Amino acid sequence: MHTCPRCESKKAEVVSKSPVEGAWEVYMCPVCIFTWRSIEPETITKPEKYNRAFKVNPADIPFAENVPALPAKYIK
Amino acid sequence: MAYKDFRDFLATLEKEGQLLTIKDEVKPEPDIAAATKAMSKLGSETPAMLFDNIYGYTNAKVAMNVMGSWPNHALMMGMPKNTPLKEQFFEFARRYDQFPMPVQREETAPFHEVEITENINLFDILPLFRLNQGDGGFYIDKACVISRDLDDPEHFGKQNVGIYRMQVKGKDRLGIQPVPQHDIAIHLRQAEERGENLPVVIALGNEPAITTAAATPLHYDQSEYEMAGAIQGEPYRIVKAKDSDLDIPWGAEVVLEGELLAGVREFEGPFGEFTGHYSGGRSMPVIKINRVYHRQNPIFEHLYIGMPWTETDYMIGINTSVPLYQQLKEAFPNEIQAVNAMYTHGLVAIISTKRRYGGFAKAVGMRALTTPHGLGYCKLVIVVDEDVDPFNLPQVMWALSTKMHPKHDAVIIPDLSVLALDPGSLPSGITHKMVLDATTPVAPETRGHYSQPLDSPLNVEKWEQRLRELLR
Ligand SMILES: [Zn+2]
């Protein structure tokens, strides 16, 4: 498990490893679906350096607008 | 002339000196996106780029900026690479009029070489990478997405081929942005009303005619495949999918078969868009991938999108201008000269027209607002005289500076529809629109001092020709 730089959940998992062994790994966060590569700049990979304007609060995710809108029968 | 497949087009670009292979090792991020953005800054005649030495990969190939210049756009149409923009516009309009060109059906395709149906992992199959720093992940943004009308499945024209942004959200999972104005949103709506998933096919790495047709604003029942045939002047080749009745471009490098999941919305984005702004943080539909095919050692074609101008603007410049031109000519066949709707997908459009009487140019501008594309774009329409080339911005600026009187020639219409991605719209999807009449007033509109327009010295055209030859 890895920490998501964007929403800081601790649940991110490896989704891919470089064909050349040990070059990099790709992680994905199941909470905010942020995806990143281990060798990207620290402004992408480090929670404390991730651009604050693009941070995601997990509590806001259920309230994101549906585009396109869902037909009535799917709305609980 | 038609390009057989994506590789055939790349070979032509290389032969014409319009393909730069980057042999030095690059990192997936930020190098590939940075190099592509930098290439766009070098002007409007830049080459495509092929990256074949990417850190961590053994044999990945990534092609960028494939249609990112006017020479490459000319070569897409099989024209000499130095064809002037206005000539490309009129030739595209001529071919657009050849629609529909019947398709050619094939039984097998090169992408059948490798087929994967188990343990699909898109992150392993495709050399994916981030484009812009605020992007929420790795995207696919130049692929053809194919779907059918569920209420009229036999109607070939209602099968849609479109280009949509798709976020890779899992090993076999994509997020997609079908904005309500897009044809695929109609198909999704039908599926969700029935409670069924919508079959889709995604084709990556196509020859450029289908990419151009897929990015052209056609009517709902017009086939992009029949338009691609018209653009390339030969029947377009397609092959059937295995899990659905969908038709696939024969020359694709990689094909994903799957289904749009009915009733599902999931957090998506942000993604840097063609407006030069990010959009995202909304919940969007999801595609589950069930089958992947690809050629041996596929080339991954990707598109950098961001602050204009980038490849997107070359890809959707002329094919946005021509439908607007044709639709205006339906209303005013003897007057409309040319249309330039190349700025941010036609949020700004420039129309060159003759005038029959005073007030006519404003009517032309208003008509542009009610064309299919104008409903979502054309926030600013500039109308110029027939002797002003709308593709020549210094000429357009001259017309604005000398022919437009703000009291009489600036018309604002409140609260019209616009695409929701327009960052200035408020609420999102609603904006005022403006027509600027920069034509010379004609009777009964007699204001201004326009009776003595400057002529040129005698024989300027002859000299122009002679100098061209001397400078060759
Ligand atoms: Zn996260």
Automatic annotation (TrEMBL), chain A:
One Pfam short name: EcdD_BsdD_detox
Xref: NCBIfam families: VdcD
Descriptive protein name: Phenolic acid decarboxylase subunit D
From TrEMBL, chain B:
Gene3D superfamilies per UniProt: UbiD C-terminal domain-like
Protein's UniProt keywords contain Repeat: no
Residue ranges constituting the 3-octaprenyl-4-hydroxybenzoate carboxy-lyase-like Rift-related domain according to the UniProt record: 106-308
Top-level taxonomic group: Bacteria
Any one GO biological process: ubiquinone biosynthetic process
GO-annotated cellular components: cytosol
Reactions listed under catalytic activity: 4-hydroxybenzoate + H(+) = phenol + CO2
Pfam assignment, any one: UbiD_C
Names of required cofactors: prenylated FMN; Mn(2+)
Cofactor comment text: Binds 1 prenylated FMN per subunit.
InterPro entries found in the cross-reference section: BsdC, PAD_UbiD-like, UbiD, UbiD-like_C, UbiD-like_N, UbiD_Rift_dom
Domain 3-octaprenyl-4-hydroxybenzoate carboxy-lyase-like N-terminal, first and last residues per copy: 10-87
Domain 3-octaprenyl-4-hydroxybenzoate carboxy-lyase-like C-terminal: from-to ranges: 314-438
Record's function text: Involved in the non-oxidative decarboxylation and detoxification of phenolic derivatives.
Protein name per the record: Phenolic acid decarboxylase
Organism, scientific name: Fictibacillus solisalsi
